Amino acid sequence: MSNKLSRVRRARKTRLKIAELGVKRLVVFKSNSHIYAQIIDEAGALTLVSASTADKTIADSVKNGGNVEAAQIVGKAIAEKATAAGITNVAFDRSGFRFHGRIKALADAARANGLVF
């Protein structure tokens, strides 16, 4: 099984469990050059809030979008946008990625700025 198929399989299992809980989910995706975060509603049909290193406001403040510092900035931005939209409780969907490095940095920054998961 390829690495991508393994990651997608892990992501599917996580998303099924989050769907049972019926809460909004903070979805994270990382590529080599960027990191993306979205908060999606319970039904999975609507993106409520999003932030990424590809956004103009964040891209101007980071030199490289594929490192831990950029992930911390995205985590802070998504938490601030979520609290402004009245969202405090979410489930963390790491999209099958291991919880270390950039994923952990984004999660820690989001927790430090007001999101609960």
Give a written overview of the molecule.
The chain is of the alpha+beta class. The protein has a single domain, classed as Nucleotidyltransferase, domain 5. It contains 4 helices and 4 strands. Strands 3-2-1-4 form a 4-stranded mixed sheet. β1 and β2 form a beta hairpin. α3 runs parallel beside α4.
Topology:
Elements: H1 3-21, E1 25-30, E2 35-40, E3 47-52, H2 56-59, H3 68-84, E4 91-93, H4 102-112
Parallel strand pairs: 1-4
Antiparallel strand pairs: 1-2, 2-3
Helix pairs in contact: 3-4
CATH C-level category: Alpha Beta
Poorly predicted runs of 5 or more residues: none
Q: Please state how the strands of the largest beta sheet are arranged side by side.
A: 3-2-1-4
- Give the proportion of residues in helices: 40-55%
* Mean pLDDT over all positions: 96
Short description:
This protein has 117 residues and is an alpha+beta fold. The protein has helices at residues 3-21, 56-59, 68-84, 102-112, and strands at 25-30, 35-40, 47-52, 91-93.
Key features of this structure:
4 helices, 4-stranded mixed beta sheet, 117 residues, 44% helix, Nucleotidyltransferase, domain 5, single chain, alpha+beta, globular
